[in-house]
Design brief:
The chain is an alpha+beta fold. The protein has helices spanning 15-25, 45-58, 77-93, 100-108, 129-149, 164-171, 204-207, and strands spanning 37-41, 118-125, 153-157, 177-186.
Length: 213
């Protein structure tokens, strides 16, 4: 079962395993077969450099200017599901609702890549707009599932897209590249409390409407 992990060991994923994950994910369908995704994947010192740069940005006055707008609002059931997910995480970690410092510390774990040995930054040609982003979303799902099939843990992170200029600078990407998201991946640390809970999924009758006439 695929889950999102928020703590990893330092053990790197072998290159041949990453290659197998990528080969499977590359079969993802896309608009007009444009295969709009591209990845920058770190390992070793490369991971540490990106980790350091993102933490520095997140703890400074670096402005948050995303290439794609974040949701304008979470409302209704989407708000409820998001809230439940956050409460599950904080409950697992023993962080009280009023513990502002504890919540901030956990938020910063995103930019430390949850100590993962690798991060994949997914980006696309900005000229493709939403269609490029949709393709990247499909690819992301394939990547996550392929990683799971190979015994590799992962977590998709929209938070990493909060500092696209930092990523473009560190990864040598041009202004024509739209940063979509990141994926931290490696071997999960099962002793960490953040990996002890599982989110729920809505029943089908909440997400599917059958149209018979």
């Amino acid at each position: 079962m695929r889950v999102s992990y928020r703590a990893f060991t330092a053990r790197p994923v072998p290159d041949d395993v990453i290659d197998s994950i990528l080969r499977t994910a590359q079969l993802t369908p896309s608009w007009c077969n444009s295969q709009s995704w591209k990845l920058s994947i770190t390992r070793g010192a490369g991971t540490e450099r990106i980790r350091t740069a993102l933490v520095a940005a997140a703890t400074s006055d670096e402005p948050v200017i995303t290439d794609m707008p974040f949701p304008r609002e979470y409302r209704g059931v989407h708000r409820d599901r998001r809230r439940q997910s956050g409460l599950q995480l904080y409950d697992a970690l023993g962080i009280d609702r009023g513990d502002v410092e504890g919540r901030l510390k956990q938020t910063l774990r995103n930019f430390a890549l949850f100590d993962a040995p690798h991060v994949a930054i997914i980006h696309t040609d900005e000229a493709l707009g939403p269609y490029g982003a949709v393709d990247c979303g499909a690819y992301l799902s394939s990547f996550l599932l392929a990683a799971t099939a190979h015994g590799v843990g992962s977590i998709a992170q929209a938070a990493l897209a909060m500092y696209p200029q930092v990523l473009r600078s560190e990864l040598g990407l041009g202004e024509d590249r739209m940063i979509v998201c990141g994926v931290s991946f490696g071997y999960p640390d099962f002793d960490d409390a953040s990996n002890s809970y599982r989110t729920t999924r809505a029943p089908l009758d909440e997400v599917v409407d059958w149209i018979d006439a």
